[in-house]
Fold these 3 entries.
Entry 1:
Amino acid sequence: MEQTAALLRSHGHEVELFTRDSLDIPPGWRGSLRAAASGVYSLAGRKDMRELLRSFRPDLVHAHNVHPLISPAALSACREEGIPVVMTCHNFRLVCPAGILFSQNENCHRCLGGREYWCVLRNCKGSRAISFSYALRNWAHRRFRMFRGNVTHYIALSHFQKTILAGEGFPGERISVLPNMISLPEQNGEPENRKPFALFVGRLSVSKGIQILLEASRRVPEIPVRVAADTSNLAELNLEIPPHVDLLGRKDKAELEALYAQSRFVIVPSLCYEACPMVVLEAMAHGRPVVASRTGSIPELVSEGETGLLFEAGNAADCAEKMKRLWDDPAACRMFGIRARQRAERNHNPEHYYPRLMAIYEAAVLQARESQMAHAGRRGAIQSIAR
C-alpha cells in the first residue's frame, strides 16, 4: 500500500491513506470480541470512511486489507458516495477464512463453495473461538455480498489467484492480473571475498516449507544454507537443524540486501499456494536465480531452466537435486540470475507497473459510471410503470 501511494504521488496524484492498526485492539476477551464484531461489520469504519470521502472527494478508492477494524462496511460507504473501488487481493481471504487455503499441513479447498464451517471443523486458526469468528465473518460477507456488491474491480496478483476467485463466482471480467512491483537495487558486480551459499528468506512455518528445506539440505551437506527468519517459534516447531544450515534470525532491509548479493541462489520451498511471493521478486531484483516449489503462482514468476528451477512441492529429494544442479554450475547460476534481473526490470519495475495500474483505475471508473447509468435507467423504468 505504501509503495503504491508513493508511486502515485511521484506521478502527481493526490493520495490519502485510510489505515487502522490491529495493535489498537485491547488485550483480553473484550478486545477479541471487538475484533470479531468489527471484522464482520464496523460501524466506525463506515462512518470514518464516509467522512474522509466527503472531505477529500477522491476519484477512486484502492482497498488492500480491511480486516479487522475497517471491514467491508467502509466499502459500502464508497458505493453510497458514488466512488468506485479497486481492491488488491493479497491472499485468498475473500474465499478462505484463514486466507491461505492451507490447513492441517496441506492445501485445503474445503471452505470453497460456501462451506466456511470447515474452518471451525478443522480448527484452522488453532482456536475454536477464533476459527468460528473467521468463518462467521466470511459467511456474512458472502451471504450479504459485502465485497461483490461494493468492489468495482479486483486486482489478482497471479492468473492462478484469478482462477480461484472466478471459480468462486467473482466476475472474471472485473478481475485484472497485476503482480507486485519491486524496487530494483543498483547492481555493482559481485561482492569481494564472496563465500556463496543458498538463501532462505521467510517465516519458519510448515506452510513455507521449512521442513522440506531442512530435509533437502541433509541430502546435500556440501551446500551451506543461511536462513533469514524470525526464530521465536523455533522451539514449538521441533526442528532438527543440520550443522551446515545457519539460522540468522530476523534481518532488516539492508542486511537482507547484503545476503541476496552474497548468495548463489534463493530457495522458496513453499507448500501453500503463494499469491505473489515478494521473496521471489527480491531474488530476481538482485539478479539471483530461484529454486522453488511448483505451486500456486510460483511457476508464473520462475521460468524453468531460464530464471531458476522448479521442484515438486513437498518433495525434498527433488528440491535437493535442483539445489545441487545449480550449486555445481556457477555459470548457469550467473546466466539464470541475469535473466531473472531482466524479467524483474520488464515485469515488476514500478515505472512499468504504473501505466498498468492506471489502466485498471480507468476501467474501474468506466465500470462504475456504466453501472450507475444502468441503475438510473432501471429506476426510471420502475417510476414510469408506477405512473
Entry 2:
Amino acid sequence: MSSFLLLIYDLIISLYGGCMRIAALFHPKAKKWVAGRKLPLAQYSPEDKCIWMHCASAGEYEQGRPVFAALKKLFPNKKFILSFFSPSGYEFHQEDEIADEIFYLPFDKKAQIEKLLDHIQVELFIAVKYDYWFHLFSSIKAREIPLVVVAATFRENQRYFSWQSFFWRTIFECVDCFFVQDEDSKRLLIKHKYSEIFLAGDPRMDRVQEVANQSFYENKWRNCLKPNPVFIAGSTWPEDDKLLLKLAKERLDLSFIIVPHEIKEEHLLLWESTFNEDCVRSSAINDFENQKPKRIILVDQMGVLSRLYRLADISYVGGGFGDGIHNILEPAAYGLPIIIGPNFQGFREAETFVESGFTAVVTNYQDLQNTSLDLLELEKREEIKSGLENYFRRNANVSQKIAEEIVIRFFNK
C-alpha cells in the first residue's frame, strides 16, 4: 500500500475510534466496545505457543468454533486465544471452555497491533469468514506467522472485487490459505489471481449438529406449552410479527414459541396485550414443572434458540422481510420444515434448501397460512426430515478436514 493510502487508512481508523468514544457517552454497547479494549491481557511466557482465532461477533464464532475445537484436540498443550470485534461476541462467549483467553481486538493501528504480537507468541492466526484489517494482517505476515481464513464465502458484487480491489488485495495477499465454503467462492478467488484455496465446506454444519445432540431440559419447556403441534419462530423482526400475530390468532390448534432477534419491551408487550393469559415470557417461568401450560411462550433471554428448535414441529426463521434471513441451519439440524420471507438471495443454504423443497418462501399472510398447513402434514414433515438428514451426512466433518489441512500445511514441516 502506498504511503498516501496508508495515511488515509490510518486517519479513517482514528476517526472511527474517536466516533466510538463519543458514542460511548450515550450508547451502552459503544461504551462496552471502548471499555473492553482497555482491559489488560493475561501474562504469557515465551514457551506459551498460541493459536489465535479472531471473529467479528458471536455468529462468526459459531462457524469457527468447531475448527478451534478440532485444533485443540490436536494440540492440547498450546494456548488457544480468542478475540472479538463486537461486544455481543465477547460477552456471549466468556464462559467458552476452549479459549484460554478472550479479549477485544485492538484498534487497527500499527503500534497497538505490534505491541499485542510482542506480548503473545502466535503460531497460527485464524480469521473467521471476514473482518479483514490491514495492520493486523500485514504485521502477522511480516512475522511469518501462518494466517488462514476459514468459512469464507465470496460473491462477485462484494467490495473486495470492486473498484476498491487494489486496497483489499494488499490484505488478501497476506493470507496463506482461504478455506472456502463453496465452489463458486473458489472459482471467484482463482479468477482474481489468488491461488492458495481449499474447498472445505461450512463448519457451521458441525456446530449445529453438535448443539442438536447436546442434552437439554426440553421436557420442562414442553410442560409450559399446551399439547398442540408447536410452531417456533426464531430471530423475528416486526415485519415477521405482522404475519405471525395473525397466524397465532387464527390457529388456536397450534402452540407457539416466539424468539425475537432483538428483545425489546414494545415487541413483547404487543404479544402480551394480544393474547393476555394465554402468553408468558420465559423469564417469568420460575417453576417449569408446575407452570400452567400456555399456548405462547415469548423467549426474552439470549442463547437458547438453537436448542429450542427441538421442541417444534415446524419452524419460521425471521429476517426475510428485511435485510436477509438469519440462521436456517439450526432448525435444519433437527430436520424441521422451515418457512422464510422473500429476501434470501445470497444465503447459500437457503437457496439450496428452497431448491430442494426443505424450505418454503412466503411473501404475505395467505402464503404463511397455506404453507403452515401443508408443512404440518406428517408425510411432508417426514420427507423433509429424511432429506435434511441426508444433506447433513453429505456435508459432515468439515471442521476436522480444515484442522487436518492446517496441520499438513503449517505444522508438518
Entry 3:
Amino acid sequence: MNFKHILGAWVMALAACVSAPAAAQGCSNNGFGPFNFGTLQNSGPTDITSSFAYGCWGGSSTIYVRMCLVISAQGTPTATAAGRRMLGWRSGNQYYTFYDLFSDPARTQKLPTAGRDFNWQFEVPANSSLPRTQPIYARAYAPAPGTPVSESGYENSGLAATVQFSWRTGGYPPNCQAGPNNGSFTQSGAMATSQVSNACQISMSAPADLDFGSTSTLGSTIDSTTTISLQCPGNLSWRLGLNDGLHAVVAGQRRMAGPAPDYLAYELYRDPSRTQRWGNDTAGGTNTVNGSGSTQTNPTVLTVYGRVPVQAVGAPGTYTDTITVTLSY
C-alpha cells in the first residue's frame, strides 16, 4: 500500500552584521557579514559563506602580515557547548536556536570565541594598497523539535569582533603580537538574528509501503505496520488523518484492488490492539492522531497499524491501495 504525504517546512533566518572604524597603521577593517541563512530545514543544517573585508598598505618595502580574528561568544545570550545561541520568547518562556561560525569550508574548525587560534598570513608589495577578504563559513542548525515561533524573533546581541595583526619586512611574524609592528581594531554590538516558521514537516518511513506480504488464504487476520514522522513548532497543535483510499466501497470501508473485479478489505488503526480506526476528521480530530509541538519527541514517530481481516480470497495477484496523509495545524 502506497502512501502520499504533504510536507511542511521550517523557516528560520539568521543574519549578523559587523562594521568597524578605521584600523591603526598598516591595516583597516572594511566590515563583516551579513550572515543570512534564509530558510532553514528540519532535515539538517543550512550553510552559507560570508566574509570579513579589510585592507592593508605597504611602505617602501614589502611587508609580511599575520592577522587574527576573534568573534566573542559574550553577548545576550552567551554561547554554550552546543554552540552560539539566539534567544527568543513565547508566552513568557525562553527558547533558543543555535548557530556557529567556522574558519574552514568543511566547518570542522569553529571560529574561536577567545584566544587567537584563527589566523592567516599574506604579503603586501611595496608602495601598494591591498584590499582583501577572508571567508567566514557559517552554519545554522536545524531548530530543535518543539522550538516555537518567537513573539519577537530570536537574536544574539552584543557580540564583539576583534582583529589583531602584526607585520615585518623580513618574513612573517610567528603570531599576531610578535611585532615589531602591531595593530588591532574591535567592533562591538554585532547581532545574529533568526526566526522559526509557523509550519510543520512530515515524512514517511523508508520504505513507506504498508506491506501485508503474501498468502494463499485469509483464514486468519494478517497484521502489518509502517510509520509517519513529523516535526512542528512548539506553539502549534496538529491533527494527522488518513483518508479512505482509492477503492472504498462506502465511507469508512477501505479496500485494496486486485485483478478485476476482485478486492480485499483492510483497515488502518491508531492503536496496536487495532480497535481505534484511523480516519480523516482533521477538522474535529475525532478519529485522527492529535498532538502538539511542545510535547513531541525528536521527531514524533507515529505508527500506522494495518490489518487484513478474515475473508474469502479472490483471484491470485497483487492487491494495492493508495492513502493520502493529511497534516492539519
